[in-house]
């Protein structure tokens, strides 16, 4: 086979599953974050693949060490969007031949332990509990392809594994019926899903670090509401998701999903797209007719069998006009 039959069309490498726990101390009041970090690089690295030339390779072990170092020095460590941007900006600024950095941060959910006090329960200043499987997700692309002084960043954020359930005000009727249909129509059912949400912001310009070691990272002095710098966006998006799920008299998962996404876009001026993935968590009423006990009619169904698989999966993306 001749050498002109193929070419390297893309290449990206880095470090995955870098686990970071950072403690930030404010006197006796401590904060913690736990992150799983992935940091990947693109740039003039072709010869490491095509010519076995390692002189262009920033070792993945170095990328791991840089991740820990930025986690140590960054004043933005408690905000995953800003930490990811700080890390990505440092990587593309430090190495002349690296043009893009792709940083994914998965934040595990820790909450303060409430303890008894003279005035009632209070949050403990340095004791925490792992608060479920929900994770906050941030994906950042830091692009210096047009120059180290013209860095542009794209950010997608959201959450995953947010498990929710409601016991009524959910129906599923009037769907297509044909010879393959065995599912019965129901006007009242359990609705449960494990929510994956992502929303993409408008791209932002990142100032070039001005220090010799390109370790500084500047956040705008004035924060534009609804932008990637607005720390209320994740809280509000989560609240919209939960409020809508709880209060919507759902005709279908699709209809509820659409209402959630539209509200997030309406409330955040710089969010361009919102995507949800909502897998059905099925709970099937147990048939007790053989015992003379009614447990299938929705108003009397009280004992259910959780079914893990197969499950429906409902996805959609809603975009700003």
TrEMBL record:
Active site residues according to the UniProt entry: 15, 60, 282
GO cellular component assignments: peroxisome
Subcellular location: Peroxisome
Top-level EC class as recorded in UniProt: oxidoreductase
UniProt cross-references to Pfam families, sorted A to Z: Uricase (PF01014)
Gene Ontology biological-process entries: purine nucleobase catabolic process; urate catabolic process
Reaction(s) catalysed by this chain's protein: urate + O2 + H2O = 5-hydroxyisourate + H2O2
UniProt: urate binding residues: 60-61, 172, 189, 253-254, 280
UniProtKB keywords: Oxidoreductase, Peroxisome, Purine metabolism
PROSITE patterns on file: URICASE
GO molecular function: urate oxidase activity
Protein's UniProt keywords contain Oxidoreductase: yes
Residues noted as binding O2 in the record, renumbered to the chain: 60, 280
Binding, 5-hydroxyisourate: 60-61, 172, 189, 253-254, 280
Family annotation (InterPro entries): Uricase (IPR002042), Uricase_CS (IPR019842)
Pathway recorded for this protein: Purine metabolism; urate degradation; (S)-allantoin from urate: step 1/3
Coiled-coil region(s): none
The enzyme's E.C. designation: 1.7.3.3
Family membership: Belongs to the uricase family.
NCBIfam families: urate_oxi
Protein task: Catalyzes the oxidation of uric acid to 5-hydroxyisourate, which is further processed to form (S)-allantoin.
Protein name: Uricase
């Amino acid at each position: 086979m001749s050498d002109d039959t193929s070419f390297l069309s893309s290449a990206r490498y880095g470090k995955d599953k870098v686990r970071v726990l950072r403690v930030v101390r404010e006197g006796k009041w401590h904060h913690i974050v736990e992150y799983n970090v992935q940091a990947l690089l693109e740039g003039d690295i072709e010869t490491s693949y095509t010519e076995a030339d390692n002189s262009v390779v920033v070792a993945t072990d170095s990328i791991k060490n840089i991740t820990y170092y930025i986690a140590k020095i960054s004043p933005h460590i408690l905000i995953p969007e800003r930490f990811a941007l700080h890390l990505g900006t440092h990587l593309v600024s430090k190495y002349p031949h690296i043009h893009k950095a792709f940083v994914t941060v998965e934040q595990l959910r820790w909450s303060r332990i409430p303890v008894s006090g003279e005035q009632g329960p209070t949050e403990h200043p340095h004791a925490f509990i792992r608060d479920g499987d929900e994770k906050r997700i941030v994906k950042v692309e830091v692009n210096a392809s047009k120059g180290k002084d013209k860095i542009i960043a794209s950010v997608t954020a959201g959450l995953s594994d947010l498990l929710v359930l409601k016991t009524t005000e959910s129906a599923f009727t009037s769907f297509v019926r044909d010879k393959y249909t065995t599912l019965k129509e129901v006007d009242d059912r359990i609705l449960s899903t494990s929510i994956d949400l992502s929303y993409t912001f408008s791209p932002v310009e990142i100032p070039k670090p001005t220090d010799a070691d390109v370790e500084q990272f500047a956040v705008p002095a004035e924060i534009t509401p609804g932008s990637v710098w607005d720390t209320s966006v994740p809280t509000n998006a989560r609240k919209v998701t939960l409020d809508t799920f709880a209060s919507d008299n759902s005709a279908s998962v699709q209809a509820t999903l659409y209402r959630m996404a539209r509200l997030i876009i309406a409330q955040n001026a710089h969010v361009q797209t919102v995507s949800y993935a909502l897998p059905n968590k099925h709970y099937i009423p147990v048939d007790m007719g053989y015992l003379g006990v009614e447990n299938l009619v929705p108003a009397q169904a009280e004992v259910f069998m959780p079914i893990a698989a197969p499950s429906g999966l409902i996805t959609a993306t809603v975009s700003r006009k």
